[in-house]
Specification:
This protein has ten helices and four strands. It is mainly α. The strands form two sheets. Strands 1-2 form a two-stranded parallel ribbon. The chain is globular, with a radius of gyration of 21 Å.
């Protein structure tokens, strides 16, 4: 068995990385087979994750629903490619001919210095799961804990900006159902929507270098809204996030991503006969 050790180190600026008061930290001499993760470096990478995710969320909103193909009377033309980066944004199907108010061009969107990033459903539920893990002092949430958290932190009547399967699962929770029943194919007809892959990636970061544990932590949160293909793809991303902490940093970024993807494919998708397997063959 491979052990993972985190080493408490003070920040270069002189401030110490916060320690969990509910954990007991003991001195330990790593074995040759141990994977050692520097707490200071990982702390900064987690900060980078949140910042990068927020930038990605709001940058993505510029082009969201601009290009959805040609469906009936809706004609959005050819999909964007990398060559459209920096070019004028085109109106979304909701925009009534007006480009995004966030940016006139397809480019990065940043929050103003010392401001607060706006909410986004891609991360809001991850915030909830992180809070629930802390509140309940556990690594594995129960269905009741998930339901209680969703009902407490998500607006019931006002616009809550949930995506498709998330909203259906939330409606089922309001009726008394408890995860994983909220993602069951008999209860939730939207179970193959992409919601879970956007709301459970963080469990891979909670278990660096141990995707097996990350998948155990993420199982019920994933099954809160997903089954079959969408569950497999969600587990694929959880695994990649876990592997990111032990990737060979001497490799070019493209090679790192492909290597993590190949391992995640072996761990997750190949275990099920789903179309996601074919998507990851090349």
């Amino acid at each position: 068995m491979v052990s993972i050790i985190t080493i408490p180190i003070s920040c270069s600026a002189g401030t110490k990385i916060p320690e969990n008061p509910n954990l007991s930290y003991t001195n330990y001499i790593p074995n040759n087979t141990d994977i050692v993760i520097d707490r200071e470096a990982y702390f900064e990478k987690l900060q980078g994750f949140w910042l990068g995710t927020c930038i990605g969320n709001w940058t993505g909103l510029v082009t969201e629903m601009d290009k959805i193909g040609n469906i009936g009377e809706i004609k959005t033309g050819a999909f964007y490619t990398r060559h459209d980066w920096g070019q004028p944004d085109q109106p979304s199907i909701w925009g009534q001919g007006i480009p995004s108010s966030l940016s006139a061009s397809i480019n990065f969107v940043f929050a103003a210095p010392d401001s607060v990033w706006g909410a986004d459903d891609d991360t809001d539920i991850e915030y909830i799961y992180q809070e629930l893990l802390l509140k309940h002092q556990t690594s594995i949430l129960t269905g009741e804990q998930i339901r209680e958290g969703w009902l407490r932190y998500i607006k019931h009547e006002e616009e809550n900006y949930l995506w498709v399967s998330n909203q259906r699962a939330f409606d089922l929770m309001l009726k008394g159902l408890v995860p994983p029943a909220t993602g069951d194919t008999q209860n939730n007809p939207e179970y193959e929507m992409i919601d879970a892959q956007l709301t459970t990636e963080i469990f891979g970061l909670f278990s660096p270098a141990r995707p097996d544990i990350a998948l155990k932590m993420a199982l019920l949160p994933v099954q809160t809204t997903a089954r079959e293909n969408s569950q497999s793809i969600s587990e694929f991303y959880v695994t990649m996030f876990s592997l990111a902490s032990v990737v060979d940093e001497s490799l070019p970024m493209k090679n790192r991503i492909f290597r993590m993807a190949e391992q995640a494919k072996r761990n997750c998708i190949i275990s099920r006969k789903v179309w996601a397997t074919h998507m990851n063959k090349e």
